[in-house]
Design brief:
By secondary structure, the protein is mainly α. The protein is built from eleven helices and no strands.
Length: about 260
């Protein structure tokens, strides 16, 4: 119905233009002007849905489609600016409570959720938010892994201390003890190497296979005793499950435990 009405009005406008042309030919200026004005008004009403306002003949108008395009372009630009701002906000939130600043984990978590909600209202998608949360996930994973690596390093250093005691009691290096001393030195290097290896694993940026790497280390370590392996496997069971769950889902497996074990409190 709307399209039929538009066609009728358009035909009327053409007829009015023709009449205006006729009045112009016979020098009826006033009639021609009025007719042209009526024709223009008819065209405006014919395409009224495409206009917001019109300026001319006492009526102001703007092309609605053009304004919509401009608005869409502006929104797109604002969203483009929002993404790096989101990344900076989420990265800053991830660092709060670190490096001497004080913000409990629960408060950081609440702040992050609030920022996410506001950014979603601005049109930032979940995929874009996840991409902006790189530092947030890195530091959470790092903190979840901290008790695991601290325990591993502690056990390794205990073995290192025991080895140092052997060095102290070795006595004077005589020709008949040379090979034994070399073996002690070699063993000392192996222990030091494993400690440094674990520290590097703890600091690595790619954390996707961290749990697998830790488990493999416990099994293959030449420094750990069988009793150490059994003790570590039992003591770190829940922590390893927490870490693996977060790496895979980016969610805390035991949020209450995570909040309660906050060192910043």
């Amino acid at each position: 119905m709307e399209s039929i009405l538009k066609i009728v009005i358009f035909i009327m406008a053409i007829c009015l233009f023709c009449c205006g042309a006729y009045f112009s030919l016979i020098d009826q200026v006033a009639a021609a002007t009025a007719t042209y004005g009526a024709a223009i008004l008819a065209l405006i009403f014919a395409f009224l849905t495409e206009f917001k306002t019109f300026k001319g003949l006492g009526i102001e108008a703007e092309l609605l489609d053009r304004k919509i395009e401009e608005a869409d372009d502006l929104i797109s630009r604002l969203r483009g600016i929002t993404i790096p701002i989101a990344e900076m906000l989420l990265s800053s939130t991830a660092r709060m409570g670190r490096l001497g600043t004080i913000m409990p984990r629960r408060q950081r978590y609440g702040l992050l959720n609030q920022i996410e909600r506001e950014l979603q209202k601005c049109g930032v998608s979940l995929e874009q938010l996840e991409a902006a949360k790189v530092d947030w996930h890195f530091f959470n994973t790092f903190d979840l892994a901290t008790p695991i690596f601290q325990q591993l390093i502690k056990v390794l250093k205990n073995r290192q201390s025991e080895h140092q005691e052997k060095f102290k009691g070795f006595g004077t290096i005589t020709p008949d003890k040379y090979e034994a001393h070399e073996a002690l030195c070699k063993r000392n290097g192996e222990i030091h190497k494993e400690i440094e290896f674990i520290k590097d694993m703890w600091q690595q940026r790619d954390q996707t296979k961290m749990v697998e790497s830790v488990k493999n280390f416990i099994v293959s370590s030449t420094v750990l005793l069988d009793s150490d392996r059994a003790e570590l496997s039992g003591a770190l069971k829940e922590e390893l499950l927490d870490l693996e769950h977060y790496i895979q889902s980016k969610q805390f497996r035991r949020p209450d435990v995570w909040f309660e074990s906050d060192d910043s409190l």
